[in-house]
Amino acid sequence: MISKLLLFAPAVLAQQVYVSASGPPTRSQCSVNNTYATALPSYSFQGFSFTQTETVRTATSVPAPTTTTSFAPPYTSLSHLIPNLTTTQWGNWDPSITSTPTDAGNPYGNASWSALWNAVPLSNFTRGIYSSTVSPTPIPTNELVLPPLEYFKHQDCYSFPSSFMLGVAGSAVQIEGAIADEGRTPGMMDILTVANPSASPDYVTNENYYLYKQDIERIAAMGVKYYSFSIPWARILPFVVPGAPVNKQGLDHYDDLVNFVLSKGMLPTVTLIHTDTPLQFYPNISGTLIPSGTGIGYVDLGFQRSYQNVSFEDAFVHYGKVLMTHFADRVPVWFTFNEPLLGSRNGKSINAVLKAHARLYHFYKEEVNGAGKVSIKFNDNFGVPRNPQDPTDVEAANHFNSFQLANFANPIFLGKDYPSSYKNTIKDHVPLTASDLAYINGTADFFSIDPYTATVVSPPPNSTVQDCASNSSHPLRPYCVTQSTTTTTGWNIGYRSQSYVYITPIYFRTYLFYLRNTFRSPIAITEFGFPVFAEAEKALSDQLFDSPRSCFADNWEFGDFEQRFGIQTVNRTTQERRYKRSFFEFVDFVESRRQEA
Question: What Gene3D superfamilies does the annotation carry (predicted)?
Answer without folding.
Answer: Glycosidases
